[in-house]
DNA sequence: TTAGCTGTATTACATATCTATTACACTCAT
DNA sequence: ATGAGTGTAATAGATATGTAATACAGCTAA
């Protein structure tokens, strides 16, 4: 996996895993790959993977069975809410960033439509 | 100014200055505050400001008169193009991030409209 | 019980970022 | 010429991030 510079890798891994869940590629109760496999896949150190997982553990998205592995929570509501939060965060950020560039709320839809039309291919 | 953790401050300052330009608060040919003033304003070290300015210098947005200060380029076209690029980058990122969360291109406008309506107040 | 898989912890090292401090170089108004 | 304002450079120290290597601890299947 290619990581952006200037953003900690462990955060990018966390984001990656969150997206896997949002996309339904990791489902409730499922075991996720071991820290060592993930470290290999992502060409990153075990400790860095570990750090990402710890945070998701704290947030209840994953739970750990020591000696067995990490598993996606079985709390379906939490998963759904998490996905929605991820989407809402993107929307928040988008609206805020555009405002900081002088693009008003009212023109956002128009701007987006134009952009989508022009980048069709 | 409040800075996000996890993103280098000098990048956030650079972004801040770009936005000032996009908003027209810093106009072509104008002198910008001295590195020491900016450092005070932003409660940050002079070196950190310096680092942000160097990059903008390299990109031609600013030019330096040693002993006098830093000035916004007089190249109006470049300024306009820069603003447009900033906006396009936000759109790019938004579309890509939403895709990574499973929100398709076709539904983006609808999702945005709904979001804007619901967050009115 | 043992082998091989899990997660976890610790240590040491390298690099990037940021601060603080000091010094230097240039320009302009006086 | 001098002083006050500019940008620039260099050093030292603190903290965060990431790697590498090693060791430990728990689970499961053979």
From TrEMBL, chains A, B:
Domain of life: Bacteria
SMART domains (alphabetical): HTH_GNTR
Record organism: Lactobacillus gallinarum DSM 10532 = JCM 2011
Coiled-coil regions, chain positions: none
PANTHER family, per the entry: GNTR-FAMILY TRANSCRIPTIONAL REGULATOR (PTHR38445:SF6), HTH-TYPE TRANSCRIPTIONAL REPRESSOR YTRA (PTHR38445)
Transferase among keywords: no
Molecular-function annotations in GO: DNA binding; DNA-binding transcription factor activity
Stored Pfam families: GntR (PF00392)
Record's protein name: GntR family transcriptional regulator
HTH gntR-type domain location: 7-75
Keyword Transcription: yes
Entry-linked InterPro entries: Tscrpt_reg_HTH_GntR (IPR000524), WH-like_DNA-bd_sf (IPR036388), WH_DNA-bd_sf (IPR036390)
Keyword terms of this UniProt record: DNA-binding, Transcription, Transcription regulation
